[in-house]
Amino acid sequence: MIRHANFLKRSVALGAVALAALSLQPGAASAAGEPTPSSGTPGTKIVGGVPAAQGEFPFMVRLSMGCGGALYRQDIVLTAAHCVDGSGNNTSITATAGVVDLQSSSAVKVKSTKVLQAPGYNGSGKDWALIKLAAPINQPTLRTTTDGRYDQGDFVVAGWGATREGGGQQRYLRKATVPFVDTATCRQAYGNAHIPAEEICAGIMRTGGVDTCQGDSGGPMFRKDDAGAWIQVGITSWGEGCARPGKPGVYTRVSAFSQAIAKAADQLRR
Description:
Elements: E1 2-4, E2 7-9, H1 16-21, E3 50-51, E4 60-63, E5 67-73, E6 76-79, E7 88-89, E8 94-97, E9 108-117, E10 129-133, E11 143-144, E12 154-159, E13 174-181, H2 183-190, E14 199-202, E15 220-224, E16 230-240, E17 249-253, H3 254-268
Parallel strand pairs: 11-16
Antiparallel strand pairs: 1-2, 2-16, 3-13, 4-5, 4-8, 5-6, 6-10, 7-9, 8-9, 9-10, 12-13, 12-15, 13-14, 14-17, 15-16, 16-17
């Protein structure tokens, strides 16, 4: 979960050692690993972001182990590999969808049946996984990019994660816009820890202040395609702290794994 002492995966779900390393505040997660959102209002912000409107991102999913995700298909969630513990049958995860308010009575909750973690995942790169649901969720899915043409520009990130480094998870979905950071600049920030062929960096290098944070892991980074539709280009993965100047967020490069993800989704539906 921790690539380096200061390089933190943006999850809150992988055990006591990992939780301690993330310096979670009280209320960030229960002893059973279920997230306990803060009682903040819709006006609270993702790090440097703003509240998302109900229905604005209908493909967003909250996972009970403390991660985010997106509907890849109505019965399959795309998330980060570090959010799950291997592949196989798994009925322990609850996916919450259809709402920005996790406490809304309109929330749709569906249990998992199987998990497929990226083949060869070892904590460095290949940070994607799929979760098969017991029933489809009747919400729009988020199309994933199949090439690199959208792997630059300004991206949108969204999640229920912390609003500050070391903070607790939130009740309401928030969004932010982060600009692409080129490979050379990202390598200056992270050295060989950054894997350009498998990862995209995004953030405001000079001032920081806008970023995903702990609890946002697995959520999508997306932008508009040429037709004006949302398309997923990244998966929230890791970074040094949250919103620090000179330390951008690092996201799984979806275009590098689009074929493998599609193949894995077909396997899960058999």
